[in-house]
């Protein structure tokens, strides 16, 4: 018999058992079960800390406790930047004092050389004048000709260390800028508080005025 023309629209399928049907191939990924919360990125000022990520995805604020610890960490980071600036300044002052001491040493050695008529002793003094002193080297041209000591030059190791400190300061400053660019009011206040505390404890000899926002 041909049942192709039979109308099955009125048949009730509610009693059919679908328990044996295999649904394993169906994609239910849209439910997102077990996935990590997304970071809330703001481009406008806000006080909302819901799903706040600070610089890195792993630095994720998930509650009040994590927010408090994050703000304390930001205060410490910004205070550390001021400590680094002060340490760099003191190192530069130390180098300057060593240069002044070496300048006096060169002047005294040159004066003794001019007043000494012993050629052997003069040769020993000439060797001493060109010897590096505590990592600070000098350009020896004309230092023994009566024209006075030449301009000082910082030793190679001192130059390298100053360059490293300068690079670290720039990296540090731009990282603080990224903290501020979360546009979150709590983070901004923590940055300002950390900078103020750092200047209070470490910046007694550092200028209070800032030339630029990042340096």
Describe the structure.
It is built from 4 helices and 4 strands. The chain has helices at 64-115, 119-129, 156-180, 185-202, and strands at 52-53, 60-61, 136-138, 152-154. Helix 1 (64-115) packs antiparallel against helix 2, helix 1 (64-115) runs antiparallel to helix 3 and helix 1 (64-115) packs parallel to helix 4 (185-202). Strands 1-2 form a two-stranded antiparallel sheet. The chain is mainly α and 215 residues long. 49% of the residues lie in helices and 5% in strands. A hairpin with a 6-residue loop joins strand 1 (52-53) and strand 2 (60-61). Mean pLDDT is 74; it is low at 23-33 and 125-152.
Estimate percent helicity. Answer: 40-55%
Largest sheet: 2 strands, antiparallel
Number of strands: 4
List unreliable stretches of 5+ residues: 23-33, 125-152
| Approximate shape | elongated
Task: Give descriptors for this structure.
215 residues, two-stranded antiparallel sheet, 49% helix, two-stranded antiparallel ribbon, mainly alpha, single chain
Per-chain topology:
Elements: E1 52-53, E2 60-61, H1 64-115, H2 119-129, E3 136-138, E4 152-154, H3 156-180, H4 185-202
Helix pairs in contact: 1-2, 1-3, 1-4
Quick overview:
With 215 residues, the chain is mainly alpha-helical.
